[in-house]
Amino acid sequence: MIKISRALSHTSLLLPLFLLAPQAVAQTAEPQEHAAPEALQTGDETPWIYEGSDVPQDKEWLWGAMDNGLRYAVRENGVPPGQVSIRIRIDAGSMHEREDELGFAHLLEHLSFRESTYLKQGEAIPTWQRLGASFGSDTNAETSPTHTAYKLDLPNATPAKIEESIKLLSGMMRAPVLSKENLAAEVPIVLAEKRERGGPGYRVAEATRSTLFKGQLLGSRLPIGTEETLLGATPEAMQAFQERWYRPENAVVVIAGDADPMFFAAMIEKYFGDWQGKGPLTPAPAFGDPVAPEGVDPDNPVGEVAVLVEPDLPRTFAYAYLRPWRKVDDTVEYNEGRLADLLATAIIQRRLEARARVGGSFLYASVEQDKISRSTDATFVSFAPLTEDWGAALTDVRAIIADAVTTPPTQEEIDREAAQYDAVFVNLVEQRSVMAGSSLADEVVDAVDIREAVAAPETFLQVFRGMKNKVTPQEILQRTQQLFKGDVIRATYVTPAIGEASDNAVQTALRSEVTANTGARLAAKSISFDELEPVGEPGTIVSQRPLGVLGVERIEFANGTRALLASNDYEPGRVAVRMHFGAGKRAFEQDEAAYIALGEMALVGSGQGVLGQEELDRITTGRVIGFNFEINDATFVFSSQTRGPDLDDQLYLFANKLSDPAWDPNPVIRSKAAQLLAYDGMATSPGGVLQRDLEFLITAMDGRFKTPSVEDLNAATPEGFREVWAPILEQGDVEILIFGDFDQQKTVETLRRTIGAIPTRKPIAPEALARVPAFPESGNETVVRTHRGDANQAAAVIAWPTGGGVAELRQSRQLEILASIFDNRLVEAMRERAGASYSPQVGTHWPIDLSSGGRITAIAQLKPEDVPVFFTEADAIAKDLAANPPTAEELERATEPLKQLIRRAMSGNLFWLYQIEGSSTDPRRLLYLQTLQADYSETTPERMQALAQRYFGAREGWQMAIIPEGQELAKSTGERVVPAVRAAPALTTGR
């Protein structure tokens, strides 16, 4: 079946009333009487976020500043219907910690969810699950260097639920219970999180941070902290940290959602109005400025560098021009300058990409300007050398930048990038009415973090159009020159080989002069869709009729292609297009894994007709046109999110790729190089080994699911790529779905000229259709793989086969509930066992296009000695679910979040597109639409037990363990995990 996470990824459309009305009734209740908010900033008063700014105010937000120093922002937003998004930002992150408090900001985030004034120990997550908010996506928090942010997306948000949630959150901010018992439970969980982040990649990231930001708090204050300081945390120390920073002057509350914003404001004032800080306000510490070492040439201030040797990681080089961060007045003039900087970096980025495409010395290169954690305003340059000759790659990249800082760009280059940004801003304006409240709330939190204002999409477009015609080549040159100046230049180089580079060699290379590469500039070259050859003779419509659901129209052409169209204005300016064809992984032989992987990266880039990579870029400049490619178990998919005015050309590209594919070898060569560079890195962590091996092993070593090895990739050639893919693109029925804001009558004619005009498709070979992934035989020993990462890291998987296909689609939805119950039990048990695992997960996969191949899988990262414990506990949970029905409370915790998740997703075009996809081939899919919500949210203990008996009771679970090299898998003790307290899991930072 379609995974929940994929089907629910877009939620910004309003359903037709006949489907939505029964679910929306509960949202019409009026809030109870409440005191009028007193802290709203009204009239001529400048809202707190716009102080010092002349940026036009977004009038949909209401702003409040309370006497105790707390500030808030509230607005009404009905996307998705019934949801309210609450954010509480505390101006305290890891850079607010003292030397003996490293990790305290993040630890306090965890402890705040464990127990507080209004929530007993372990009640937070179950409470919000019963209110319909799922753990991890709807209920979460993050700790950064500069802040801690608590996040709640509350579905089906009645006034009573909103008030209860604000009350609970206020208690978490004001009075978490920082006891020895809670510390003893939570510190191991944070240490488990720290452990799971370890490995070569983590070491490189932290060494890079400490090098680039040397002498600043950002370089030494990591949100995760150290084992020493976390184990040394005491209730008194945590209380001191909490009282120092968790005070109203440091707090901002943001609420956006489907209710009266005056009610939001009143509730904030009710539950936060009497909050007072303890003692005098502590000023934030000075974060520090980037400073060059003494004696460095101020005209070329190359400072600290670090050469990092990691045998299994690919070569990467990064250097940065670092300038001090200073608070700015967020004015229109300032934003015009920022937009000019974006144009400048975009021009360089395009030149670098063009160089990499035609066989440069680097696989990729990027340039980006950013303001980091109120610590530095920096320009970052990064690239991946293709060989050990990193100096040549560095010279290549610097030569392109040298040209940009010495010679103005052409007006054509500026216009090209400006057209691209203009299209982005226009698209934002068109979709303003369907912007999700959660995103709007996050934007305010981000603006507060960087000490700037917020603006409506219309303002972005107005400012950009007001300045883009004034931007001259000379001004872009001046902006570019400023971007590549800094108080200090620092760098890191990651290499797998000892002795390949030294710190002195890197410094010398960065200080050396380079000759500007004027040949990297892209010559002006216009290209238009009007100049392209037609796909073929326009097709004939042989059938055109209503599908019978959601206003969808079904069209069939004489060449056998089919279209399902749903034109609506629920998402203004947005059109979802999804075209599937062929046999997916069934089309390949067992020894063609390399060409599967290369196809995912290179097939689109290899071109079509007269359009190569550069031509595809040019012809889509200033347009909202995409070209995503997926290889699924049973189908191939082209997909895109586009706009009505660009739909005709989007359809041309999809059709032309099938009718007239091109075979440029460069994308294949580049993709092959990328995969060769990345392969060894997969062995450096349990997660990397899972990514590399799990699908291959869990499909009984089916070669089509293998991650290609170095030998496989070395044997692959561009000629072999074409030989494999050319016949595949000619095979199998085509079905295209178009849902969104478009002219349906006009699009039908476009379909005649595109999808309807492609040559008649060849049938898929019967032997390919018969290829269904198997599941490993039962009774096997645990499959053991090793990794070359940290010795305290391991991972474990246990899985049971289920099924596939349309016939039991309703049952597959019920399996989502069973998996959720399993997940809740496993999370509580494994996290409560002294941090045995930070985030174990249970999920279900049901391939709707195949007759089998489904599974329920539980995965966890752990310490090596806890792998047998995981197997014992997961097996015991599975057996218990088969032997005993779950409790009513467990059902509620599982079904209410699923119910609300589905309900919100049903307001999105993509959700319905996924449900209807494939129905022109198998109409049975339509029969199950009417039971969709009930299948995911209504069940009985007996039904859950019956499912568990069928799938868990039929056989033992298949087991896989990933342990460090040189270790042996620990023996199982047979002991179950018995948590002392069935507490809710604490939240992760940035999850």
TrEMBL record:
The keyword Glycosyltransferase does not apply. Keywords: Hydrolase, Metalloprotease, Protease, Signal, Zinc. Residues 82-194 form the Peptidase M16 N-terminal domain. It holds the Pfam family Peptidase_M16. One of its GO terms (molecular function) is metal ion binding. InterPro entries: Metalloenz_LuxS/M16, Pept_M16_N, Peptidase_M16, Peptidase_M16_C. Residues 234-420, 723-895 form the Peptidase M16 C-terminal domain. It comes from the Bacteria. The keyword Zinc applies. One of its GO terms (biological process) is proteolysis. Residues 1-26 form the signal peptide. Belongs to the peptidase M16 family. This is Insulinase family protein. It comes from Pontixanthobacter aquaemixtae.
